[in-house]
């Protein structure tokens, strides 16, 4: 079941990206120069991708930290906008952050597949996703739609690059830690989230610089995700140091020279390799569905769950 759903969604990714870019272009939305993007789970990975790809115009924030610390209010007071990301529009703390920013007069855009959702009702602008479905309970193609929506808001029109097809998959299942910077940091987080959901994996995720400041001493293998551009050369320098230190290092290479194109293609590569692992291991349903704490945890993070 899971493999079949992933295969179906993968087959339609190119068309999906095209439709999403076209839909966003038709809105004529122009984000302010200063924007905070908040989201949880896959949507936080999308926020990180936007931070890395939008040329300094977006900062990714954890919604609970931003709300609890007063950062949402402070940014609104400085004239910054808020991109509130939630496919279903019911992520509780994202809705609360949007409401706080709107109450303080900020530009608030909800990126969601549900225009009638609680999140959409708190926003002045709604950027609708053209697809919000799940692949047997796993957020797959809809994450690519979220990335395409954000890319479209910031002027990307290039479609889904084809370089993700045929990428080797050694970087997904084996390494104990995954890391990256810029839009590739979002790609690495998205990959680890899928490992948690589908396999109950114990893999870890870190921003690249944080990884080498101590977590690296607890692992023997690392996957590094490469950004489209690395102006400081830090990714290459870190790869060399990790190999010199004797760690087994895998890479998901950059798949496009444009950061938005790279984010889209790397997300597609994650899904292609996820499908390969699901088929190889005979996984029929995602592991999270068997977790004994699923119901209370779902109530914690989503609005309207009984």
CATH topology of the largest domain: Rossmann fold
Amount of helix: 40-55%
The level 1 CATH classification of the largest domain is Alpha Beta
Specify the CATH architecture of the largest domain. Answer: 3-Layer(aba) Sandwich
* Distinct helical segment count: 14
For CATH, the homologous superfamily of the largest domain is named as Glucose-6-phosphate isomerase like protein, domain 1
What is the chain-wise order of helices and strands? HHEHEHHEHEHEHHEHEHEHEHH
Mean pLDDT: 97
Strand order, main sheet: write it out: 2-1-3-4-5
What's the gist of this structure?
The protein is of the alpha/beta class. The chain has helices spanning 2-11, 13-27, 42-53, 63-68, 71-77, 92-103, 118-122, 141-153, 170-173, 183-199, 208-211, 234-244, 259-281, 294-301; strands at 35-38, 58-61, 81-85, 108-112, 125-128, 177-180, 204-207, 221-225, 248-252. The model has no long low-confidence stretch (mean pLDDT 97).
